[in-house]
């Protein structure tokens, strides 16, 4: 134990910045598992997806929508918000220029930064947020500074490949998913219940 004068209670109530990165599958899945635990103990959860199109049917979104309704109707768990911040920017380009997509990502980050300052949620998932950082669409220094100085007790989990070193340095928890084998390597396609 470090000699910093913190009690066990204080150590248990320290907000966590987690980053799930790497080429392997499971980064978002792990983040949503953490969000599920957070919801279960009554934390308010907000998910911001930066790469998935608003048209894509994401299984976790449907489940968290039901959990949000359960909270709203019966007071069980925490409140839930789910936001899709783009039109599908990675492997499935949609209409609009890079400048349009960059502006949408920057606007999305501005909204998240505002919510962090206002302590609007307890648990944030910034899904596939490493991509706008990598592409220079969102200012990395601004992100690291805002996350490092966020007030109160707000957990943040960021997912995506190629997380920048500055973000990894700022994080409390970093997990790198390493691909050993994947069905798509031999031509199999994504499946309901596995990929979405």
TrEMBL record:
InterPro entries named among the record's database cross-references: CblAdoTrfase_CobA (IPR003724), P-loop_NTPase (IPR027417)
SUPFAM superfamilies (UniProt xref): P-loop containing nucleoside triphosphate hydrolases
Gene3D superfamilies: P-loop containing nucleotide triphosphate hydrolases
A Pfam family that the UniProt record links to this protein: CobA_CobO_BtuR
Protein name: Cob(I)alamin adenolsyltransferase/cobinamide ATP-dependent adenolsyltransferase
Organism listed in the record: Mycobacterium kubicae
Classification lineage: Bacteria, Bacillati, Actinomycetota, Actinomycetes, Mycobacteriales
């Amino acid at each position: 134990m470090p000699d910093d004068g913190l009690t066990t209670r204080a150590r248990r109530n320290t907000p966590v910045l987690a980053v799930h990165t790497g080429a392997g599958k499971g980064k978002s899945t792990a983040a949503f598992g953490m969000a599920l635990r957070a919801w279960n103990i009554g934390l308010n959860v907000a998910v911001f997806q930066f790469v998935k199109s608003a048209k894509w049917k994401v299984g976790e979104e449907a489940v968290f929508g039901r959990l949000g309704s359960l909270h709203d109707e019966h007071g069980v768990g925490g409140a839930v918000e789910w936001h899709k911040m783009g039109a599908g920017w990675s492997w499935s380009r949609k209409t609009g220029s890079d400048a349009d997509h960059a502006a949408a990502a920057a606007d999305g980050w501005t909204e998240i930064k505002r919510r962090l300052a206002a302590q609007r949620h307890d648990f944030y998932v910034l899904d596939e947020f490493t991509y706008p950082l990598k592409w220079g669409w969102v200012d990395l220094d601004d992100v690291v500074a805002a996350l490092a100085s966020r007030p109160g007790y707000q957990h943040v989990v960021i997912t995506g490949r190629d997380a920048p070193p500055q973000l990894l340095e700022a994080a409390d928890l970093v997990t790198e998913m390493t691909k050993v084998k994947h069905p798509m390597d031999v031509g199999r396609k994504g499946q309901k219940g596995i990929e979405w």
